[in-house]
Amino acid sequence: MDGRSDYLHSDRPGREVDAVSVKGTRDVRCRRARLAERRRRDERGSAAVETLLMASAALGLVLVVVAAGRYVDGSAQANDAAYAAARAASLEPTSAGGMAAGRQAAETALAERGKSCLNLSVSFAGSDFAPGGQVIARVSCTVSLVDTGALGRQLGLQPNRVFTEQAVVPIETYRSGSNQ
Question: Measuring CA to CA, which residue among 104, 105, 91 is closest to residue 135?
Fold first, then answer.
């Protein structure tokens, strides 16, 4: 070979590259490495962006958990009120007295558990107040999620949710009293 054999090396099998083209390749690689190093070092503000993203996600998660808790609590309150209404109505000797006692018991049950359930409606449709019959109490109430605001709406949360629960309590077969 011609004296430049010291500078020859194989870039790929079967291909020899001289020192001039290797030097040009090295320069490009060095420039890329310096740019990559500069990009790695220039991360100013990235922690703030990461914190902002994580805080937004955490806030959204907290709102979903609060809304889910309100939904569960509202449903439980409506269920408790329905059972209290049916039980109180079944203990009264008359249907009119039973309905009044049932409504009062439902209001008391909601007042004892808090006020997340609003707009109470109590009905006794389908109830048979005769001995051996049954009292069917249906309670409807509304849970408000308005305070979750715009983020709650963006997450798809309804501002108001109506819960309807039903409880059935039998009336004693040998109960005495009038059935009016």
Answer: 91
Residues 143, 153: Cα–Cα separation, whole Å: 15
Residue 41 has phi, psi (to 5 degrees) of: -75, -30
Whether the predicted model's global pTM rises above the 0.70 cut: no
CA pair distance 40, 19, nearest whole angstrom: 31
Using CA atoms of 110, 116, 119, 124 in order, give the dihedral in degrees to the nearest 10.
-40
In order along the chain (180 residues), what is the average pLDDT of each group of 10 residues? 48 51 62 73 75 90 82 87 93 90 92 80 87 91 77 74 92 67
- The radius of gyration computed from the CA coordinates of the chain, to the nearest angstrom, equals 38
Question: Residue 1 burial (CB < 10 Å; 0-12/13-18/19+)?
Answer: exposed
